[in-house]
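User: Some background: our group keeps a shared notebook of sequences we're curious about, and every so often someone picks one and asks for a predicted structure to add to the entry. Today it's my turn. The entry only has the sequence so far, pasted here. Could you supply the structure so I can complete it?
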Amino acid sequence: MRGWQLAAAALLGVASVAAFAPLAWFPLLWLTLGGCYWLLNRVRTAGAGALLGGAFGLGFFGAGVSWVYVSLSVFGGMPMAAAAGATLAFCAYLALFPALAGALFVRFAPGPRLARALFFAALWALSEWLRGVLFTGFPWLAIAYSQTPPSPLAGFAPLAGVVGVGLLSALLAALLMELLSGLLPRGAAIRAGQRRVLSGFPLLPLLAVALLLAGGASLRTINWTAAQGAPFSVALLQGNVAQDVKWRPETFAESLSTYHRLALDHPARLTVLPETALPVFYERAPRDYLEELARLAAREDGDLVFGIVTGDGERYANTALSLGVSPAQRYAKSHLVPFGEFTPPGFSWFMHALDIPMSDFTPGEAKQAPLAIAGQQVAINICYEDLFGSEIIRALPQATLLVNLSNVAWFGDSLAPAQHLQIAQMRALETGRMMLRATNTGMTAIVGVDGHVQAVLPPFTRDALTGEVQGYSGTTPYVRWGDVPALLLAVLLLGLGALRRRSGHY
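Assistant: Of course. Here's the predicted structure to add to the notebook entry:
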């Protein structure tokens, strides 16, 4: 293996980030990942495959999650060199998963081109699934997220979820590369004056590509869920409180005043404030202020949800509470962020280097009932939790609406807020439910049941996003079966590939 191959793999990884939000050039992913597949087909050892996959991953994550450095250095208080080293180490860890896929592909891939493409897609999907579950999981930048609308592959999300769409995205990338590789000799033969049809013409890859694109586009026309009840008004409040002053006592009154004013000026049946919008323990929050929020919600015979920390200082939870005409209810975040909300065993030394307030939360129950508010059954998820589709569906089909409370001010003016909104689009597609997002600094948005962003506030502005939304009932195949069918398909493809490694085409 030559140096240019490693450099090419790393550059392809970097370029792949443009397939995701905010640029969202979704077809680019098919070409860049296809390029990685092409490179892997030109090495002969598992070690070389691991190096190529790792180089792709290092470029991909180094560019795509560079915002981790912002949280560690700018807001976490870590020295710049240490923050850069920690970010690089984190990206190197994430790169191990494409490295594993690359090594196994080169070592075990079957000979026929269609079989190789299927084998590659299965390996890539399983490596991403593993990344999403190991050590509590980090599925950010799973390739399926690049295929939200208008990508035709978004049509497969209600059936197979992010794992299935990732498998099909990798398959399409490999098939396109097989198609391009097969066409090149044909062009050379024509220039040489040969008129015969080459036996190697990639008819099967061409047919498979057409079926994937047409099938996904057709599935986009299916309504998997149905509207339930009448539309109702919502107000999603974006306070734009800078992270470096959010928890300072001298800014406490200003934070409360900001959200009171936004709620006062934008009456709605359902009002949603961001994660930890009130920077104080609930037990110490001014009672008259909470009563005033409840009164504002009652104007529209509605309810208000806000983020706050509950607990006694020793054990505390990242919580969403409701106030208004419905009985008060709560949701406690269950999937906590490593190093941000809890300290993994053996890493207390690392947390001592950071200046992150309240970084040892107690998780809530894994399965919590939706909040019965504003005439809906609302499934709350807090910030990072919406990365885990298999956990979101625990509240379904009972839930009629998804609501996310976030604070991504930790990552500044980076790619993170736009990428996070794209993740919310995938959750809406998988569940057949609208997703409402109330964030501190962006991106506060209303996502339709079809995965399209219906409205969004500009980041780093103080405003309220208002609109009419709709509850939905019903069950998509993904809600019913979760990731199981996609995982079984991936394992089956690996098994078939192993069995046919030395056999003919199929």
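Suggested note for the entry: Residues 186-200 have pLDDT under 50 and may be disordered. Residues 157-191 form the longest helix (35 residues).
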